[in-house]
Amino acid sequence: MRPSFLFPLFAILGASGVLGDTLYPRATVNGRCTGLGGVPGVCIPTAKCKSGGGTYIDNACPDTPDDVKCCIKASCGNNGGTCKWTNQCSSGNTQSGLCPGPNDFKCCLPKGSDGPWPTPAFPAVGECKKKSVDGAKKIVSAHKGKVRQIYCIRQCVDPTSSEHCVGLAVDLMCSRAGGVKTTAGEPIAEWVMNNRKALDLKYVIWGQRIWNPDRDSVKPWSQWRKMDNRGTITANHWDHVHVSFNS
Question: In this structure, are residues 67 and 45 in contact, taking their beta carbons and an 8 Å threshold?
């Protein structure tokens, strides 16, 4: 019987892709790759890369469809950010909506940056109600560069536990990262109070204080009703302004 060389060759190709004399791990669509100079990248279709402001290189996403290339975006945001995978961002300061690819490929910003931020991505109208999206747009427009990220919908066991459960609330993140205390939310929160009718406001929370148009008169944030200590910066609303809307 003639010796067969098919099995060794299949074993090598089955475990990896081959380019020249170098073995590369198999790539996947929306998976990781490395661009020129070691810049982190993502394997996505070229059209998606270009529409997201990225550039791409060949031969870095083996065993993927021909139109899938290694996409990088070396510059994002207004503070010297670079698109990276979230677990590669040593500062922990990331912003969504600025990089092509999946949700965990984000703009990694320097740790010390505290704005101004580019206009954040707004939630889609659907589970997040139109009133919430429109309200968020009004608030952001009045505070350009002050809001880093916006959250709306939350999956809840009890839909009555929060307006987030039914898409009638937004969290406006205004510190450089979640869990980092800032003073930037105070003027935003007071603006929300002063524009309560245009927003159809139910209540607003900032810095462990709450204001409700049905209960409270217009007053500085420092005189709003105090809330119980919930234990963390985020739970006490020191890194974001919470705005709830009437149904």
Answer: yes
Measured CA distances, 55 to 86, 87, 96 (Å): 20, 22, 18
Residue with structure tokens 């109208």?
Answer: 125
Round to whole Å and give the CA distance between 26 and 165: 40
pTM of this prediction exceeds 0.70: no
Q: What are the domain boundaries of the chain?
A: 8-108, 130-245
CA distance 150 to 173: 6
Strands (E) across the chain are located at 17-19, 22-24, 32-34, 40-45, 55-57, 68-72, 82-85, 94-95, 105-108, 149-151, 169-173, 201-206, 209-211, 225-226, 240-245
Q: Are the beta carbons of 146 and 117 closer than 8 angstroms?
A: yes
The model's pLDDT over 192-245, given as tens digits with 9 standing for 90+, comes to 999 999 999 999 999 999 999 999 999 999 999 999 999 999 999 999 999 999
186 φ/ψ angles, rounded to the nearest 5 degrees: -60, -50
The 10s digit of each residue's pLDDT in 117-170 is 889 999 999 999 999 999 999 999 999 999 999 999 998 889 889 999 999 999
Lookup: tokens for 67: 């139109």
Burial category of 129 from C-beta neighbours within 10 Å (exposed 0-12, middle 13-18, buried 19 and up): buried
Q: Which helix (H) or strand (E) holds 136?
A: helix 130-142
Lookup: tokens for 86: 């979230």
